[in-house]
Fold:
Amino acid sequence: MLGWELPPHNSGGLGVACFHLSKAIASQGTSIDFVVPYSAKHEEIDFMRVHNATELSPLHKFGMGAYDSKFFVETVDKKSPGELRTIRDIQAQYGRFVEEFVEKNDFDAIHAHDWLTMEAGMRAKELTDKPLIVHVHATEFDRSGGDQGNPVVHEIEYQGLIMADRIIAVSAITKQIIVEKYGIPADKIEVVYNAIDTLSFDPNYEYDQRTYRYLEGLKAEGYTIVSAVTRLTIQKGLGNLVRAMAKAIEKYDRLVLLLAGDGEQRDELIRLAADLGISDKVFITGFVRGKQWRDSYNVSDVFVLSSVSEPFGLTALEAAHHDNALIITNQSGVGEVLHSIFRYDFWDTDRLADQLVGIATSPALKESLRNNVAKEYARISWQDVAKQCVDMYANFRPVEVYA
Amino acid sequence: MSKRGITLYMHVHQPYRVRDYSVFDTAINHNYFNTPDPASNQNNEKILNKVAEKSYRPMNALLEKLLHKHPEFKVSLSITGTFIDQAQAWAPDVLESFKRLVQTGQVEIVAETYYHSLAFFYSRKEFERQVEAHKAKIREIFGVETSVFRNTELSYNDELAQWADQYGFKGILAEGWDPVLGWRSPNFVYRPEGTENISLLLKNYKLSDDLAFRFSNRNWEEWPLTVDKYNSWMESSVNDQSLVNLFMDYETFGEHQWEDTGIFTFFEEFVDRWIQNPDNTFYTVSEAIEANQPVDTVSMPQTVTWADTERDLSAWLGNSMQHEAMRHLYALEEDILRSEDGDLISDWRKLQTSDHAYYMCTKYFTDGDVHAYFSPYSSPYDAFLYYINAIRDVRWRLHETHKTGGLSG
Structure:
């Protein structure tokens, strides 16, 4: 399996998904060699072999490459000597490592995650004639918020998708993008949704009412807390969320918005809230992790996933796990696996405002949404996801699966 | 005819900067102004000590020397309440040196709001309370009465002048801004529109800003500014006129213009040179008013300040964040005062200091450079977030301790 990050050296959801997917696949009897582009011990991983393709330290130097290809030159450590200066250089070294690895080791299938590892995957297929599965967690269209994005990345994705024997898309919406934007035949693509591993949450955690004490105070006054736990970046559609909040507050003012996260759009959102006269109703935390991160889900009543283009959207499942009512854009994949939710088009601030006011003013509605989605998300399991992958491997090698 | 005089007026001020006060501090930790980090640019004690070392101590020593040397040398100072409070706590010797200046009888203290606030534009009652509080503090520390008024950042309009006239001030200070004055010179005393007794002194911004802003600027065509050159400008400016009003921040000397620019030596030599001419003298603001009858009436219906190229309030109230911050701050007034909680009232007033709004300014280019230099935050947006969290916490304290109001803004 060719990946770019694994927890704790991940900068986002890609590493989390790869971890849980691999763990579940391994538990169903498949042997996995997982290649990462950095050097780190993964002592907590005993279900597969993790291989380090370079001597670089983990992702704090170049991790953004997984989420925003614009950063792919600047974020790499300029001080490091020799060739390892850009994401492209790291990918080249990653590719050479994979070449050597596949010459020396036996396996049955190549499973590559996103554009970062597609070139290595293609090379491995070329050298060994083993089937290549390309797993698409996000395309360049998603990362760039619907624009064309980086043409180099786009080209690598296109080649990888063409060369792949099978493609896994994390949602129907992603499958549609692959068909429409990359011209790939639909029957080559299988939709395999992500899941959530609730066992991975710290069992000793207890919600601390004091972390967001002011918000708890507002709740005691009858306020409804709307939240988004996210990077503050254009792809996430947060400008429309703030505009919808302003419209909703006009009709019903006991609403506040918690934006838990940081990102390049932060200043713009602060300014927008001030322009709309709702600064006092918008709480911006900066980057949160650990307890502050979990407490942000807990203080929240309504979680909005406002993305312009979101292949999946694990945070929505996390929010459901913490008893939130969910509102999810039609452009977010996770909405396809949940039913007891509100949906809207990312640009439709009137509709979102209506939904916010509706939930805030009707305790019955809020409780139904929360209780019912709680039953739904719990049924989504990584074991089911793994089963789909294992079946796919088996279709190539029907006799014995030993990836 | 009376002598031609320079009215040197300097403004002494330090705010209580808000530390990095986050959502997670709100409603938990009510300390907004004391950062534990000794190296932080939000550390008010550190900054006061730094400026004391670079500016207050050496400049007061120089002023004291010149006052003793020349009985004609006069200075006017406005010293904010927040500065006095900080000096009392962290640099009592600095406050003592100001007292010695006042004791010479050649230094006049100018009235203003205790908290260097924008209260005039939000709450007339609160504004008057702060003027009273400042008068009382000056009386307590220096044993003198004030009779000439200046408002925060030299902000001024006809309404303010009429208020000061009614209140009983005999003089008021403003920017001598060309678009208002037209062909008229700032080197005379004027009468504000709609007033009976009060006189208006206008800043000669060209000669003031030569020192305050341009003195060390090597890209300025007149750099380096010599005493000869400056004295000749001054002489030609007052040729057949009455006075030159040099208004500036006190911190010009040693902090905005560092010692190594030669500002102290320049100043000392210039004072000597100016007084050598027997036709010349210095005035305190009150003396300037007594020595000169108003020559005309000046009207400024719109607010004029001494800041930026616009000379308006846009550095403080130019964007929506600043308006939001002030709106929520002043909305708490009645409940805060009713609480009779000294600490809470004091914190609320410290948040009124105009510097907080200034740090949220997003004007860029030339003006923005100045703002960035004076800001302890990495961006105006950070300044805004910390500030709005502090306002929420003030609201929280009201609600928790005094059961007034609610948490909604």
User: Anything to note?
Assistant: The interface with chain A takes residues 22-24, 26-28, 319-321, 323-325, 328, 362, 379, 381, 384-385, 388, 391-393, 396, 399, 406-409 of chain B (CB under 8 Å). Strands of chain B lie at 4-12, 75-79, 107-109, 148-149, 171-175, 191-192, 199-203, 243-249, 280-283, 297-298. The mean pLDDT of chain B is 95. The longest helix of chain B spans residues 44-69.
